[in-house]
Amino acid sequence: MARQRDGLTRRQFIGHTVAGAAAMSAIGAGPARAQTQAEAPKLGAQLIGKLEGPELVLDPGKAPKKFAEAPMLADLVKAGKLPSVDKRVPEEPMVVKPVHGIGRYGGTWRRGFTGPGDGENGNRIVSTDKILFWDYTGTKIMPCIAKAWKLSDDGRQVTISLRKGMKWSDGAPFTANDFVFWYEDVYSNKDLQPTPNPDFTINGKPGTLRKVDDVTVVFEFPEPNYLFVDILAGSTSMGGGQATWQMSGRTMGAYMPAHYVKQFHPKYTPKDQLDQKVKASGFDSWVSYIKNRWDWRLNPELPTLGPWKTVSPINTPTWVLERNPFYMGVDTAGNQLPYIDRISMTLAENLEVLNLRAIAAQYDLQERHTALAKLPVYLENRDKGNYDVKLDPALNGSDATLQTNQAYEADPEIAKWLHTREFRRALSMGIDRDQLNETFWVGVGTPGSVAPSETVPYSPGSDWRAKWSTLDVKQANALLDKIGLTKKDGEGYRLRTDGKGRLRIELQTSAGAFVPHTQIAEMIKEQWRKIGIQGDVKELERSLFFTRIQNNEHQIALWANDGTEVLYLFPRHALPVDPIESLLGHPIAAWYASNGKQGKAPKDPQLAKALELFRSAGGKKTEERYKIAQEIWKIMIDEQYSIGTVGQSAATMGVRVVSRKLGNIPARQINAQHCRTPCSSHPATFYYKA
Amino acid sequence: MLAYLVRRAALAILTMVAISILSFVIIQLPPGDYITAYIAQMSGSGSFVSEQEAAALREQYGLNKPMYVQYLKWMGLVARGNFGMALEWGRPVAEVIGDRLWLTMIVSLAAIVVTWALALPIGIYSAVRQYSPGDYVATLIGFIGLAVPSFMLALVIMYFGFALFNFNVGGLFSSELADAPWSLAKAWDLAKHLPLPALILGFAGTAQLIRIMRANLLDELRKPYVVTARARGLPERRVILKYPVRVALNPFISTIGYLLPYVVSGSIIVSLVLGLPTVGPLLLRALVAQDMFLAGTIVLLLGVMTVIGTFLSDLLLMWIDPRIRLEGRK
C-alpha cells in the first residue's frame, strides 16, 4: 500500500523530473505557483491550431484528366515492369485537394512503433481502404473506396457504387466479386466466422450482401437500419477496411482480395494441397494459415488498397511500408498519391525510448505513443531537432473516467452505495478536476463530465459538461450526510452503516494507459479525504484489470471514455452494452447483448431507460438518433454512473511531433476513433519540402 | 567417469521435462489468457475486439481446451522440433527467438568480458595491496557499483548521452542499418553501439566480482603454501598467479552455470531501458501478452541452459581444481 502511494513508476519518475526541470528553465527565476498555472493553458492554446484538412473534389467534371506519377514508379514503367499511370489510376479516382498545396514526390517517413501488437500504428495511416470515410471535421460522411452510396427510404437497403477501373496493389481489378467472396466464403464460413457480427445485424437479425453488377453492391436488412451508412463510414467491423479488420485473425471488412486469398481456401484449393502448404509454413490448421496470409502487416504479398503496403512485416525490427503503385487517389493536379515513397517504422522496446527518439528528432511525424507529460521536454528541444509540436484535442469527455459497477454484489454495503445516485454525485463533486488537469494533463485538458465536445451532434449541450462535475465539497458532504453516512472515525473518514469499520471504495486502475490512471486515482483519493471517503487504489496488470471486470469483481474502474463521441458506433465506454469491455457491470452488458437471455437486467430504472433508448436508435433516422443520444447522455450524467474528470485533451494520439521539413501538415487535425487519426488528414498528401 | 556422465545426462533430461511442465503451468496461472491480454491491449491502443471475434480466436488457438491438452499439444510439437507459433508475432517461435539470440549472446558475452577483464586484475591488485590507496579506490567504486541499480545507471547515462553528446538513443544499430543484411558497415555499427550496454551491464557484476576475488585471495595469501613458495624463492608474480589465484578462481567457475542462461536472455530490465533487441524484453512481452508458446519456449531454453551450464561448471571445476578431481577418482 505504502509503495503504491509513494511509488512513482520509473516512467513517471523521468517524466516528472525531466518535465519539472524543463518547466523551471522555461519559466525563469522565481515564478509564483499561481503564475505557472496561469501560463500553462496559454501554452497549450498556442499549440492548438485551427482545425483544417484536405478535401475531396466530388464533382467528376473537375477531376484531372492527365496523371503524373512518382519518379520511382516512372522508372518501373520505363523498364516495362509496370503499366503506365493512366492505366493504374481508376477511371473515377478519388481526387484530394491537399490542405496547403500540391506536394512533391519522394522521401521516407520515419516513425516509431512498439512491436507486433502495435498494428494500429500503420492501420491508421492506410485507412483510406475504408468503404466510406469522414471529412476532416469528422462530421460529414465522404466517399472512399466507394464513390457513392444510397440509403433506401425504408432503411433496409444500402447500395454502394465502386470506382470504375479501380485495382488492387498487384494490378488485379477490384470489383463487386471481392465483396461477394468475403460474404460467401469468409463471413458465411462457420470455421472462419462462427457467429454473425453485430455490425452486420439489426436487432439480432443478420443482414445480407448482394452483387448487382461489377461496380455495385447492396447490403440488405430485414428491418430498417438507418445507422448502417454510419457503420460503413465508422471504425466498425463492416466499414473499417481491409487493413484493420483482417489483421490479427480478424475476418471482417466486407471485402477481400478474392483472386489472392482463394489459394488458401479449401473451397478453391484441394484439401491435400492446402494441408501441405499449411504444414510447410508451420501452422496447425488452414484457418490459422489463411488468417495469417490475409494480414496485411504480416504478408507483403497480400494485395491491398491503401496508399502504402507492407514490404518488411511488423514482426521484424523495422516495419516498412512502400507506395502502392495502383493507389486510387490523385491530387487536384492529377499527381497520383501518395507523395511520400516509404514509411519506415523502427521498433522501440519501450515507450521511454520511443519518446526520447522523438525528442531527438529521429522521427519525422509521430502522434502515437508521444506522451503529453513530456510536452515541456518536446518544446525545449524543438528548435534543436527542427520539429514543431501540435496538440490535437480529442472529442471524448474524459480520459480518466470512474466507472461504477452497477451490477456489483460482492459486498452488499458497497453495492448499496454504488447504486445510490446521491453517493455517486457526492463522489463526483469531491474531485478537484483543475488540480488533476494541471498535474496530469499539463493544463491542456478540459475538466468536466463524460459528455463529448459540444461540436459533436450527440452533445447534450455545454451545461452538461459541468453538471454534478465541479468541485463542491460542501454539497458533497451534505449529500453524504443526507443518505445516512453520518458516522465518522477519528481520522474523519465515514463509517459503514453495517458496523464493519471504515467505508472503503476500491478504485481499480490499469498499468500502461495513455494517461497515468493510477497516479490520477491516488490524487482523487487524497481529494476525497475532504468528503470523508476512503479510496483504495489498486493497480492491476491490464489483462487482470479486464478479467476482474468480466468476473464482476470491480467496484470502480478507471478507463478512458475514448470513442464515446460517436455513441452509436462505439458505445462500450459509455454504456454497459458490450460484454468485452463492460465497465459499468458485466452482467448488465451480457443481458443487453444477449437480448435478455444471459446476465442480469439493470436494477436501476434510469439505466434501464438509457439502454432502451439506445436499442431503439438503430432503426431511427439521423436527426432522431441525435436527439436520442442527447437524451442518453443527460441520463448518464444526471445519474453519474460514469464520473468524468478531464477530457477533450491531446493525451491520446494528440501530441503531434512534426518535422519542419514536412508539408501539407494541418495546424490541427481531428483526433477521434471514427476518423482513424491521422487518416482523415490524408497522410498520402504529406510531403517533404525541398 | 562415463557412468557419471550418463547419470548426469539422464537426470538433466528429467529436469528439463519438469521445467517444461512448470513453465507452462506458471505461465497459465495468472487469470485470463492470450485473448484477454489481446483485448486489453487493443482497447488500450485505441482499437477494439468484439465478443464474437474473441470466441473465434480462442477456438482457433485452442485456448478453450483444458491446460493439459494444450501442454501435450505443445510438447508434441516440441518433440518434432517445432516450438509452435508465437501468437502475437504470427511467426514460428524458433524464428522469433532465433532473430534475437545472436545479438543477445554478443551483448552478454561483451558484458562478461568487460566484467572479467576489469574484475580479475582489480581484485588481485586489491588483495595483494590490501589497504593501499588503490585498494580503497577500487573498494569505493566497487561498492557504488553494487549499490546503484544498473537500470538507473542506464537511464542516467542515456539521458546525459542524449542531452550532452546527442547520442543515438537506445538500440544496438543506427536506424538506417537496423534492417539491412549483415555487412561490414553493420558490424562496425554494432561495434560502435556495443560498449555502452556492455559497460552498464558489466559494471554491477564487476563490483561484485572484485569483492569476491579480493576476499578469496586474501584467504589464500595467508596460507602456509604461499609462505613456502616465497621461502623457496619463486618470483612474486609466479607465487601469486600460479597457486592462490587459481584456487581463488573456484567460485567464478561454479557460477558459470548461471552465466549460460544469462548469455541467452541478457538482463531483462537493462535491455528494456536501453531498447536492446535481445531475448529479455521478448520474454517480458510474451509474459504480459500471455503468449504461452513463446514464453514457455524461452523459459524452457533458460532451464536447459542452466542445466547444461551447471554440468559444464562441474567439469571445469574438476579440471581446474585437483582436490575435486582427486575426490572424483576415489
Topology (elements, then pairings):
The complex is a heterodimer of chains A (690) and B (330).
Chain A (H helix, E strand, L loop, with lengths): L1 H5 L3 H18 L5 H15 L7 E3 L13 H8 L6 H4 L5 E4 L10 E6 L6 H4 L8 E3 L6 E3 L2 E6 L5 E6 L13 H12 L13 E2 L2 E2 L1 E6 L2 E5 L7 H6 L8 H4 L12 H4 L9 H10 L5 H8 L14 E5 L5 E6 L5 E3 L10 E6 L3 H9 L5 E2 L8 H6 L6 E5 L9 E4 L7 H7 L2 H9 L3 H8 L5 E2 L15 H4 L6 H10 L21 E7 L6 H12 L5 E7 L1 H9 L5 E4 L26 H8 L11 H13 L4 H18 L2 E2 L2 E2 L7 E5 L2 E2 L23 E2 L2
Helix pairs in contact in A: 16-19, 23-24
Chain B lengths: L1 H27 L5 H11 L6 H11 L5 H13 L5 E2 L4 E2 H36 L4 H15 L2 H16 L18 H10 L1 H27 L2 H8 L4 H7 L1 H5 L1 H5 L1 H10 L2 H7 L4 H10 L3 H29 L1 H8 L1
Antiparallel strand pairs in B: 1-2
Helix pairs in contact in B: 1-17, 5-6, 5-9, 5-14, 6-9, 7-9, 7-15, 14-17, 15-16, 16-17, 17-18
Could you walk me through the main structural features you see in this protein, from its secondary elements to its overall organization?
The complex is a heterodimer of chains A (690) and B (330). Chain A contains 24 helices and 27 strands. Chain A is of the alpha+beta class and 690 residues long. In chain A, the strands form nine sheets. In chain A, strands 21-20-22-18-23 form a five-stranded mixed sheet. In chain A, α16 runs antiparallel to α19 and α23 (605-617) packs antiparallel against α24 (622-639). The longest helix of chain A is centred in the N-terminal third of the chain and has 18 residues, at 10-27. Mean pLDDT of chain A is 90; it is low at 1-41. Chain B has helices at residues 2-28, 34-44, 51-61, 67-79, 93-128, 133-147, 150-165, 184-193, 195-221, 224-231, 236-242, 244-248, 250-254, 256-265, 268-274, 279-288, 292-320, 322-329; strands spanning 85-86, 91-92. Chain B is globular. Chain B is mostly helical. In chain B, α5 runs antiparallel to α6 (133-147), α5 (93-128) packs across α9 (195-221) and α7 (150-165) crosses α9 (195-221). In chain B, strands 1-2 form a two-stranded antiparallel sheet. In chain B, 77% of the residues lie in helices and 1% in strands. The model of chain B has no long low-confidence stretch (mean pLDDT 82). Chain B contains 18 helices and two strands. At the A-B interface, α2, α12, β15, α13 and α21 of A face α2, α3, β2, α7 and α15 of B.
